[in-house]
Amino acid sequence: MPITNYEKRRYIISLVAIAIVLIYIIRLLSLQVFSDDYKKYADSNAFQKKIQYPARGLITDRKGKLLVYNEPVYNIMVVMNEQIGVDTMGLCQTIGITKQQYIDRMAEIKNTKLNYGYSKYTPQLFIGQIPAKEFSILQEKLFRFKGFSIEKRAIRHYATSYAAHVLGDVGEVSPAEIDSDNYYRRGDYIGKLGVEKSYEKELRGIKGVKVMVRDAHGRIKGHYQDGKFDRVPEPGRNLTLGIDRELQALGERLMQGKIGSIVAIEPSTGEILCMVSSPTFDPHLLSGADRGRNYQRLSANPHKPLLNRAIMGQYPPGSTFKTSQGLTFLQEGIIGPGTYYPCFHGFWHGRTHVGCHGHHSPVELNFAIQTSCNSYFCWGFYNMIMSKKKYGSYGNALTRWKDYMVSMGFGYRLGVDLPGEKRGLIPNAQYYDKWYNKRWNALTIISDAIGQGEVMLTPLQVANLGATIANRGYYYTPHIVKKIQGRELDTLYTHRRYTMVDGKNYNYIVRGMRSAVLGGTCKSANLPGIEVCGKTGTAQNRGQDHSVFMGFAPMNNPKIALSVYVENGGFGAKFAVPIGGLMIEQYINGKLSESSQATAEAFAHKIISYGTRQR
Predict the structure, then answer these.
(1) What is the C-alpha to C-alpha distance for residues 211 and 289, in angstroms, rounded to an integer?
(2) In the prediction, which pLDDT does 228 show?
(3) 571 burial type by CB count under 10 A (0-12 exposed, 13-18 middle, 19+ buried)
(4) Which of 3, 249, 423, 608 stands 20 to 30 A from 592 (CA)?
(5) Phi and psi, residue 260, nearest 5°
(6) pTM (two decimals)
(7) Does domain 49-241 match CATH 3.90.1150.10?
(8) Which CATH fold topology does 245-283+310-604 show?
(9) What distance in Å separates the CA atoms of residue 404 and residue 448, rounded to the nearest whole number?
(10) Alpha-carbon distance 267 to 474, whole Å?
């Protein structure tokens, strides 16, 4: 039977009625169940939750000397829903701003694109980081302005002007950081660089809260249920660094007017004793209300003082790399300690020539390290890569060679507990297959044997090589933090990492490094009463060569291993070796002799001209 027009209309009206009812139900659910707008409004009328910020953890050096602590500052907060009708001009006069600045700031607070997570019911940052002296003046008058309140905070203060790259800084949290961790809200502070960033969760502590009750007129009447729901903040954990404050200070003084790095490591633990990157900056510049402006100024500096060259600089290691080559050739049976190779002012093979300074020929391993003979290590590398009988192909030989390099901590990040570490480069067979269209052999890449060519290391990796040789075949992952209050260090930093080379072969390299200090290229690092072992490096560069030193001391009971890298400093013996010797003397003896103090003063005033070009 056909459906009449009346029945059609009835069905349509019924469907419309049902739809209207469903819309009302969905809206009620949205308002009462899924949305917290009304709850916020009700809560804001009945309660005021005051966040209690914990004290950020202190940072000390290895001897307990204070490096970073907290100083009180105050933020002016505003609850937008409560400040309606405030005497704007009176407020502006009280806090020392103009009417236009007030209007602009209010607009910024309400802009949800700028102010992530904005709510008119919760306190918003109006003006931040007011020093304690200015706060005492404001405190007497600010209570008159409804909706505005004071929040006590703290900023970082530094005991010295040293170790800026290590310590890092604290800045206002970004929207992305708020989104990734619900601990933060707008106006909070977070570690941005250095230890402050990598140990943020340990340093920041746990926030507390005070739940206050309001009356019908919005006046605070006291703690809700006598403080039953209050929570006391838990301070952040204190950190003890491996850094020696006096050694760090000396290193930064010696590197004044130079571009480069000094890294010193305690071989028995992997603790970093100093990490100098030059040029540096005063860490106070990135603390307080002027942080943003100072950061922009430092970022615009063509010499890049914000760059931590110790872990981000990637350089050819030069002749310091020869120690790793000698170890590899010994372990692979390519050479023995008594193997001799010729050197006629360098390595010659057909039309390939790698130059070397004049000395007698042929030479054996100890003398090759002592005098930094290029030819010796080129011959060792050539014989390893060209040994098809042993390895089957050039590619297999180079893969074996790279495995040794990786086991010594090259080619990948070591895992230091600082942000931004670079990996350097140890080329493999695939790299050269692509670069030379599979037409290469040992002569094509012979510069790799002496730390040139495509080989790139960070100063940290070179210092770690020194620590590995000092330990005769193992190292601990280098780390800045020595101890965390109430917590163990990550096991990454507490277990030994062994190389592919037997400990007995390290003894031959150690003897050569000791000979280099006694009568070779490192004589200016020879210290009375301290058995220093060292290796120079002169890393070729488009301009003046870089000056490099890697060493450790004492020889048989090593306390310190280090690398020194001075960009455009020329021969290793010119800048890097004497600087390395002064650093070793300071750490082992706890002070410099009078003659060494004079030398240190002279080096502190030696300036290398770099112009204004980007580095």
Answers:
(1) 30
(2) 75
(3) middle
(4) 608
(5) 160, -150
(6) 0.87
(7) no
(8) Beta-lactamase (3.40.710)
(9) 14
(10) 9
